[in-house]
DNA sequence: GCATTAACAGCCG
DNA sequence: CGGCTGTTAATGC
């Protein structure tokens, strides 16, 4: 039995899931890195501080699974998650990375449905979450919070269009370039900054390339002065040109 | 031709 | 030491 199953079955807590099991409160540093907190007034921030849970997640561990009832609105404080819509039958269909600063699941929380994606840690990560009730409470009362969610949905729509473009690009270097540009999105993933901590293995997995070919693409993008390859990560030098990169 | 897997040495934290 | 990186060789579509 998985840890998540054990937690859901064995706990008498009203909430099930990852954050119920072994979570803790957020540190001051972690709170400071949450972009939407600044949009709330004192009372709202107070409720969020009480409700917010933080949990370390091991590599390979699931944050949420397709079909489970919604429990939390999640954020990545550190590490790297992958979002996939693979079902029990058939191959994984789409992947997207979720780097630090990213918050996700609001679509499911708003509808109070079941999760429609699997979220899995690519490596050791730290994940935060607020309960669905608190999320709805904020939506019902905070203009600033609504503004954040609206902006986020808008930016993510752009990401989906870009993802469709990436799917149609055939050249591996271009796919890597645009995938990187997406991961460096300053509004959706403010925790990333200039340096994205991602191994070439992980990036290859997200883009759908072998590690060796990913390594070659990164070398080409470095030669073009768009990025700098560092040990265990990539530094962005020119995100705009990365976003529209074409070979030749 | 081009990407993939496999394998390896070297380097980094 | 374990994990990541850069590179080469062999294989496949």
Strand-helix topology:
Blueprint: H1 3-10, H2 18-22, H3 28-32, H4 42-51, E1 53-57, E2 62-64, E3 72-78, E4 81-84, E5 95-98, E6 103-104, H5 106-111, E7 118-121, E8 125-131, H6 132-141, H7 143-168, H8 172-183, E9 195-196, H9 200-207, H10 211-223, E10 227-230, E11 233-236, H11 239-243
Antiparallel strand pairs: 1-8, 2-7, 3-6, 3-8, 4-5, 4-7, 9-11, 10-11
The protein binds a DNA duplex (13 and 13 nucleotides) through residues 172, 199-201, 209-213, 215-216, 219, 229, 231-232.
Overview of the structural elements:
- With 248 residues, this protein is of the alpha+beta class.
- It folds into 2 domains: 3-159, Sandwich (Jelly Rolls), CATH 2.60.120; 170-243, Arc Repressor Mutant, subunit A (Orthogonal Bundle).
- The chain has 11 helices and 11 strands.
- Strands 1-8-3-6 form a 4-stranded antiparallel sheet. Strands 2-7-4-5 form a 4-stranded antiparallel sheet, with no helix packed on it.
- Helix 7 (143-168) runs antiparallel to helix 8, helix 8 packs across helix 10 (211-223) and helix 9 (200-207) packs across helix 10 (211-223).
- The longest helix is centred in the middle third of the chain and has 26 residues, at 143-168.
- The relative contact order is 0.13.
- The model is unreliable at 1-14 (pLDDT under 50).
- The structure holds a DNA duplex (13 and 13 nucleotides).
């Amino acid at each position: 039995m998985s840890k998540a199953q054990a937690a859901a079955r064995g706990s008498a807590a009203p909430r099930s899931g990852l954050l119920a099991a072994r979570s803790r409160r957020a540190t001051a540093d972690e709170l400071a890195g949450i972009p939407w907190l600044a949009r709330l007034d004192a009372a709202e921030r107070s409720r969020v501080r009480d409700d917010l849970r933080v949990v370390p997640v091991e590599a390979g561990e699931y944050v949420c699974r397709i079909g489970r009832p919604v429990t939390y609105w999640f954020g990545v404080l550190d590490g790297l998650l992958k979002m996939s819509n693979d079902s029990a039958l058939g191959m994984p269909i789409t992947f997207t990375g979720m780097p630090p600063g990213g918050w996700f699941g609001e679509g499911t929380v708003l509808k109070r449905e079941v999760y429609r994606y699997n979220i899995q840690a690519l490596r050791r990560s730290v994940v935060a979450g607020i309960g669905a009730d608190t999320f709805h409470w904020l939506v019902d009362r905070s203009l600033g919070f609504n503004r954040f969610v609206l902006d986020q949905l808008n930016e993510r729509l752009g990401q989906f269009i870009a993802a469709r473009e990436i799917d149609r690009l055939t050249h591996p270097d271009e796919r890597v370039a645009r995938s990187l540009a997406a991961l460096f999105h300053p509004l959706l993933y403010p925790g990333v900054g200039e340096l994205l901590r991602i191994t070439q293995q992980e990036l290859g997995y997200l883009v759908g390339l072998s590690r060796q070919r990913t390594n070659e693409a990164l070398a080409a993008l470095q030669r073009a002065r768009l990025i700098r390859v560092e040990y265990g990560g990539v530094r962005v030098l020119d995100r705009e040109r990365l976003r529209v990169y074409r070979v030749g």
